[in-house]
Amino acid sequence: MNPILTIVVPCYNEEDVLPYTFDQLKGLMLRLVTEELISKESKILFVDDGSRDRTWSMIYKETIKNEWVRGLKLARNVGHQNALLAGLFAAKAVSDCVISIDADLQDDIEVIREFLLKYHEGYEVVYGVRKKRDTDTFFKRSTAQGFYSFMKVMGVNLVYNHADFRLMSRRVVDELERYGEANLFLRGIVPLIGFRSTEVYYDRRERLAGETKYPLKKMLSFAFDGITSFSVTPIRSVLIIGILSFVISMVFGVYFLCLKFFGDTELGWTSIITSIWCIGGIQLIAIGLIGEYIGKIYKESKRRPKFAVDLDAFRSPISIHERVEDEYIQRSIQKLPETN
Ligand code: UDP
Ligand code: MG
Question: Do 98 and 83 meet the contact criterion of CB atoms below 8 Å apart?
Answer without folding.
Answer: no
